[in-house]
Amino acid sequence: MTPAAPAQAMSPEKPAPPTPVVAQQPPLVPGTETPFKVEVQDLNVYFRANHAIRHVSLGVIPQTVLAVIGPSGCGKSTFIRALNRMHDLVPGARVEGKVFVDGRDLYARGIDPVLLRRRVGMVFQRPNPFPTMSIFENVAAGLTLNGIGGNHAEIVERCLRQAALWDEVKDRLRHAGTSLSGGQQQRLCIARALAVEPEVLLMDEPASALDPIATAKIEELIHELKEKYTIIIVTHSMQQAARVSDNTAFFYLGELIEMGPTAQIFTNPRERRTEDYVTGKFG
Amino acid sequence: MSFHSSFTYRKVVDRGMAAVCAICFVAAFIPLVSVLWLVISKGAAGLSWAFFTELPKPVGEEGGGIGNALVGTLYMVGLACLIGLPLGVGAGVYLAEKGDGTVGNTVRFMAEVLSGVPSIVIGIVAYALVVIPMGHFSAWAGAVALAILMIPTLARASEELVRLVPGSLREASLALGVPNWRTSLRVIIRTALGGIVTACLLAVARAAGETAPLLFTALNNQYWNVNPSAPTASLTVAIFNYAISPYDDWHAKAWTASLVLLIVVGLLNIASRVLTRNRLKGAR
């Protein structure tokens, strides 16, 4: 992890959700010398003729959580999937613009998407443990499949502890990953993503398939993971965005309408459309 | 409340439909049981160690076995597997992973047509492809015929099985920074492997039970043979020859050989179940 940028020093402790958060707001079009871990400049995503993401620019400060909110079909998922080049595999998908991670453009020539994805981990909407693998093998999958050596037992234990799952599974590491409950499977998937030591963690509605208790655990986990990782989370739930994030970006019809400190977006948005969405007038 | 929605009416319809299903089940079960019963009752008497290990004896002589035919079947099916399994599974994986273009559609269509071709026709093809150029019947020709028979069904089955693997597993693997090819091999195909092994064993069992493609490719052989260039005996052709002969003791041998064939095919089916059981505890 690179040392935190100066702006990070001003980052306050995460307070209880109702308390207003005074987070620093990154400029929407950042300059070259930026404090950002992830920086997006004029990003466009097309699926054949469909212009799904339109001219999005934003920056994410290290060790903060950015929540991406917006109504269904507004391009939230499309946006974060562009951040680890998951669109490479979709026939007809085209990405334009620049995405910098630590100042390096992911879409520049000669960037290997495979190596990139090890630094930008992803957790998906539905838990997707590998069904042929045990709990242990699932967590170690990123290491074994990539031929990375080392003390796997130690790494697996550390990642399962980080994902707050260790105590629940330590006696049955040889059981199938799919034998766990939905919430446990999702934490297993988070542990699996952590095992390859990413710096940025993308989460695509990680709690949408889970019950409230499992959701609370995942949210608690996000608070803890923030200490080490930069997290971008897509969420359908505005309450969740308010609870877990430092900054919030509101997307509508493929455009970034507004981005700012979470408290400001929810209490005093600049844009009319943001206000209408967060107050429940549409969406 | 009208009659149609009354509880009694629905209960009667439910019972009636359950009875229809039960009758259908029994009707489908009768041929299966009668085949098994007939083969076991007529063939079991001839079973002995010698039947598995000895060569056939001329008409009128007591004893003798079908050892050479059993070995021939296993040997030719083995050769057919060497050719057919990699081609069939490979084609299936290709169709599932890359087969969305014109080439894929053509291959898929060909496989579908080929899987509907009667096995006797495939025997003629193998005769033209292998027997005529070689100038004589051989195990190779029989194996090629069986392999051609296996490939299309295996390709279609493997494709379906690979496609059944959820795309979310591919995404999960790629998001861990695993290269595309290794994701295909170690996640996608690994997940489909249980089903693919089953498909292979069923294809093998089907090939082991074929007579028509072997009649004029491998022909027959009265002696032990493991030379792939020589004519080779097989269980199915042995059954055919024994059954059409006019001798009672050969008829008995045909029944016993049929029982042996059923046992071989049955063992393959059981093996496919055992091999594909999930080794993990609590797996669903």
Write the layout of secondary structure elements.
The complex is a heterodimer of chains A (283) and B (284).
Chain A: H1 6-9, E1 38-47, E2 50-60, E3 65-69, H2 76-82, E4 93-101, E5 104-105, H3 113-119, E6 120-123, H4 135-145, H5 152-162, H6 166-169, H7 182-195, E7 200-204, H8 212-225, E8 230-234, H9 238-244, E9 247-252, E10 255-261, H10 262-267, H11 272-278
Parallel strand pairs in A: 3-8, 3-9, 6-7, 7-8
Antiparallel strand pairs in A: 1-2, 1-4, 4-5, 9-10
Chain B: H1 7-43, H2 49-53, H3 67-98, H4 102-115, H5 119-134, H6 139-164, H7 167-175, H8 180-208, H9 212-215, H10 235-244, H11 248-275
Helix pairs in contact in B: 1-11, 3-4, 3-6, 3-8, 3-10, 4-6, 5-6, 6-8, 7-8, 8-11, 10-11
Features:
heterodimer, A: 283 residues, alpha/beta, Rossmann fold, 6-stranded mixed β-sheet, 4-stranded antiparallel β-sheet, 23% strand, globular, disordered N terminus, B: 284 residues, mainly alpha, MetI-like fold, 2 domains, 11 helices, 74% helix, 0% strand
Tally of strands of chain A = 10
Looking at the overall shape, the CATH architecture of one domain in chain A is: 3-Layer(aba) Sandwich
Q: What is the class of the largest domain in chain B in the CATH system?
A: Mainly Alpha
Uncertain runs of chain B: none
The total of beta strands of chain B comes to: 0
Count the DSSP helices of chain A: 11
Average pLDDT of chain B, rounded to a whole number, is 90
Class by SSE composition of chain A: alpha/beta
How many domains of chain B? The number is 2
Q: Strand-residue fraction of chain B?
A: under 5%
The rough form of chain B would be described as globular
- Look at the helices and sheets of chain B and give the structural class: mainly alpha
